[in-house]
Design goal:
seven-stranded parallel beta barrel, 10 strands, single chain, 19% strand, alpha/beta, 38% helix, globular
């Protein structure tokens, strides 16, 4: 019997720009229970964001702001040197954009997450996590922060009385602390569907994840995330959902889960 009673299934969506589209967002929204929506800095634009919100609302899928560096050309995956105060303003700007579009659509933004290189930096640096999590709390203290395991983010969220949805990135390798391995390292991005599915089974059955170094580490999570820009993301999401359902684990959006604090 699965050790995980309920789980959210999440992906990063809205990552096109103008006439360029990335991923099969419409079909993915039939599979997911929550989605992180690009807010125009690493990808996305107002029209794509609004369309994604409307589609999510029709399906009852939670939406969250996926905030990143102002780096369209690098897809937000390049490190940038930006003053923490300025970064806080950029985070609030992106939160406000998605919240406004959701309001117009008659929907509510439930969570947020940090994207790419910004997410990696926040997860590792206590001081930056404090500044940016404080910015999120100042904007809306009802928001849930969706994050891979990070002592820096989780501690800052606790200080600011924000809920956390700890997230397992099924297609990304992590170290013994649960922090993501840099994308440039061999095997950091896991593209083989059978390997991703094996990792999901291990998490659901044992509550553990095998680290990049081969150690089985305990990981208590509320959500499983897949990247919408990876090859065959739709088929993989369907297979992951089937694995979850086959083990009797209930699919529940993070906004409806308890114990996220």
């Amino acid at each position: 019997m699965s050790r995980v009673a309920s789980i959210d299934l999440n992906a990063d969506l809205g990552e096109g720009f103008g006439p360029w589209r990335m991923g099969e967002d419409k079909a993915l929204l039939d599979v997911l229970t929550s989605a992180n929506v690009a807010c125009g800095f690493h990808a996305g634009d107002p029209t794509i964001m609004a369309g994604t919100v409307r589609l999510a609302r029709m399906r009852g899928v939670d939406i969250g702001a996926h905030v990143g560096y102002p780096d369209l050309q690098g897809f937000g995956r390049r490190a940038m040197v930006i003053d923490p105060g300025e970064l806080a303003d950029l985070v609030v700007y992106q939160l406000g954009a998605l919240a406004a579009l959701a309001r117009v659509a008659g929907y509510r933004m439930t969570h947020m997450s940090f994207h790419g290189a910004l997410g990696n930096k926040v997860a590792q640096e206590d001081d930056l996590a404090e500044v940016l999590v404080a910015a999120v709390a100042s904007f809306d203290d009802s928001l849930i922060i969706s994050t891979s395991p990070s002592e820096a983010i989780e501690s800052a969220a606790d200080r600011h009385d924000l809920r956390i949805a700890r997230t397992f990135l099924a297609d990304r390798a992590c170290d013994e602390k649960g922090l993501l391995i840099p994308r440039g390292m061999p095997g950091a991005v896991i593209n083989a569907p059978d390997t991703v599915l094996a990792r999901v089974r291990q998490l659901l059955n044992d509550g553990t994840v095998t680290s990049y170094g081969g150690a089985a580490i305990k990981m208590s999570v509320h959500s499983i995330l897949l990247h919408g820009d990876t090859p065959s993301a739709l088929e993989l999401a369907r297979r992951v959902r089937s694995e979850i359902e086959a083990r009797g684990t209930q699919l529940v959006p993070i906004s409806r889960q308890g114990g996220c604090r």
